[in-house]
UniProtKB/TrEMBL annotation:
Function, as annotated: Involved in pyrimidine base degradation. Catalyzes physiologically the reduction of uracil to 5,6-dihydrouracil (DHU) by using NADH as a specific cosubstrate. It also catalyzes the reverse reaction and the reduction of thymine to 5,6-dihydrothymine (DHT).
SUPFAM superfamilies the record matches: FMN-linked oxidoreductases
Name of the protein in its database record: dihydrouracil dehydrogenase (NAD(+))
Pathway(s) this gene product operates in, as recorded in its UniProt entry: Pyrimidine metabolism; UMP biosynthesis via de novo pathway
Catalytic activity of the protein: 5,6-dihydrothymine + NAD(+) = thymine + NADH + H(+); 5,6-dihydrouracil + NAD(+) = uracil + NADH + H(+)
């Protein structure tokens, strides 16, 4: 039996479902070449951060005493950073034979959308839009954050014909409703979920510090739940699972839940590029044992069938879980 790991994600043909997510792993063409040689199905480049550029501009403003100088610095820095990023795209395309996905980390609806056209010219195969922010304003109006996703998507789509992938944070009241709107406005795929900065506190120094940098296996369940629910209701858009994909069997779990691919990062940092082959070998062997020749044959087999009863199902499992782990004291 000939087994194929090929999958289709955001209109792109991938040799396998393992995508390397945006990170320091993908910030140079040489690193990306090695990831391709190790078997990656696609690569999401290190993000172009809107806030980082704005902060650098603000830091330079202290030495500039006239508005025209500030405007010049702002535009100069933006174009310099964009130029570096476009070169990364071009160089990566030259040495990689897998889809190269650009990544824009946006905060505002209009500021960086016009970069999309330049990214397309540089040869990127798709654009992943990453919108990550805490909603903590006491005057926040319900739905504003979700609407920002739609506004940014619309603006990006106006400037490019590339497939646009929306990477969502996990702090959404109803991801399914937002995904439906994103699909209606032209999104080709969504990634569930982005991982926010993890804060911690040093009690001796009494100051803030970074918490865990890498994801943990326990984080996978969030994405499996929502991909399983969303893919059963909004089934015309592609899904990828991100966060907590550590074990080789996690690729199979993601696809069974309805995903077309996974995005991995922490596991590669911790186990090196060679771990990509572990994902691929397990998935291929599992397919052989179960009698599947193609990824599409088992994709979504365990997505949520009864959406209306999902809350009843979740509550039932919750009760069973705690009944099984009673405190015997």
């Amino acid at each position: 039996m000939a087994i194929s790991l090929k999958t289709r994600f955001a209109g792109l043909e991938l040799s396998n479902p393992v995508i390397i997510s945006s990170s320091g792993l993908t910030n140079s063409a040489e690193k990306n070449r090695k990831l391709c040689e190790a078997g990656a199905g696609a690569i999401v480049l290190k993000s172009l951060f809107e806030e980082q550029i704005l902060m650098e501009v603000d830091a330079m403003q202290d030495s500039v005493y006239y508005p025209e100088g500030t405007d010049y610095l702002r535009e100069s820095l933006k174009h310099h950073k964009l130029g570096e990023y476009l070169q990364l795209i071009a160089d990566s395309k030259e040495v990689c034979d897998v889809p190269i996905i650009a990544s824009i980390n946006c905060y505002s609806a209009n500021e960086w959308a016009h970069f999309a056209a330049e990214i397309e010219k540089a040869g990127a195969d798709a654009i992943e839009v990453n919108i990550l922010a805490l909603q903590s304003d006491v005057n926040y109006q319900y739905g504003e954050f979700e609407q920002r996703h739609i506004d940014i998507l619309r603006n990006v789509k106006e400037h490019t014909s590339l497939p646009v992938i929306m990477k969502l944070g996990m702090k959404l009241t109803n991801p399914v409703a937002l995904i439906a709107q994103l699909y209606a406005n032209g999104a080709a795929a969504v990634v569930l979920f982005n991982r926010m900065y993890q804060p911690d506190i040093d009690v001796e120094k009494m100051e803030h510090k970074s918490g865990k940098v890498f994801s943990s296996p326990e984080e996978l369940s969030r994405a499996l739940r929502w991909v399983g629910i969303a893919s059963s209701q909004v089934d015309k858009i592609d899904y990828a699972v991100s966060g907590g994909v550590h074990q080789p069997e996690d690729v199979v779990k993601a696809i069974l839940s309805g995903a077309a691919a996974v995005e991995v990062c922490s596991s590669i940092y911790m186990n090196t590029n060679r771990y990509i082959d572990e994902y691929l070998r397990f998935t291929s062997a599992w397919m052989g044992r179960k009698g599947f020749e193609k990824v599409s044959q088992f994709k979504g087999l365990l997505r949520v069938k009864d959406v209306k009863g999902v809350n009843t199902f979740e509550r039932t499992q919750f009760l069973k879980y705690f009944n099984e782990y009673k405190n015997e004291e």
